[in-house]
Design goal:
mainly alpha; 219 residues; single chain
Length: 219
């Protein structure tokens, strides 16, 4: 699925080519799912035990699963069996999916919108073992996100900021909080505020209180 990295390319032509690949991959998922459902209906009279041993049905299911692994967002569902996300071969695509949403949110929304997947992946990477390469990528993601207008599930990035907290990250957030962008000032200020208060929950109420300028009530 190397084509997927074109989704975060600066060159619009490269992104366009990657989107063509994505559309084809998604079509294959849809076709494979339809075939799997068809075989499920055809083999249903066999009964549950026999149905799930029927070679034709099992093959249709496998082909659907294979198609999913070569597409987005399907390809980033699931995770490592042993729970070690840092060692999972799918991690680069998890980070890619999040970076795509962060850098090119309109294209992501049009072609692969999945808010629940975004939330789940952010939480997973925040819990993952933080090797330096992963930490650097996540630091970049936090910086990108705080500079834009708030999007659904962006508040989850506080988890990431707390997981990768460093002088480098705080320096970037300080610069964003001092920028001319109202959203950057609001969002970066909120993340910094919570980094200094690790026991304060990152709830919707806390976020809304911050946004309405009533943070002093929580001190």
């Amino acid at each position: 699925m190397g084509w997927a990295f074109g989704l975060i390319a600066e060159d619009p032509a490269a992104r366009g080519a990657a989107l063509v690949h994505l559309a084809e991959a998604q079509r294959k998922v849809t076709d494979a799912l339809a075939r799997s459902n068809e075989m499920w209906l055809l083999t249903r009279p066999l009964g549950a035990d026999e149905q799930y041993r029927e070679p034709a049905f099992l093959q249709a299911r496998r082909r659907h699963q294979q198609a999913q692994r070569r597409s987005l967002p399907d390809g980033v569902w699931g995770g490592p069996v042993n729970g070690d996300l840092a060692a999972w071969p799918g991690l680069p695509y998890v980070l890619l999916f999040l970076e795509w949403e962060a850098r090119y949110p309109l294209e992501w929304t049009q072609h692969a919108k999945a808010w629940g997947t975004k939330q789940s992946l952010i939480r997973k990477v925040a819990r993952a073992r933080q090797e330096e390469a992963i930490k650097a990528k996540l630091t970049d993601l936090v910086e990108i996100v705080v500079h834009r207008a708030y999007r659904c599930k962006d508040r989850e990035y506080v988890r990431v900021a707390r997981a990768v907290d460093s002088a480098d990250l705080r320096g970037r957030l300080d610069r964003a909080a001092d920028s001319d962008s109202p959203w950057a000032r609001c969002h970066a200020g909120y993340v910094l505020w919570l980094l200094d208060r690790p026991d304060l929950p990152n709830t919707r109420r806390v976020w809304q209180t911050w946004v309405t300028g009533e943070a002093a009530a929580l001190l």
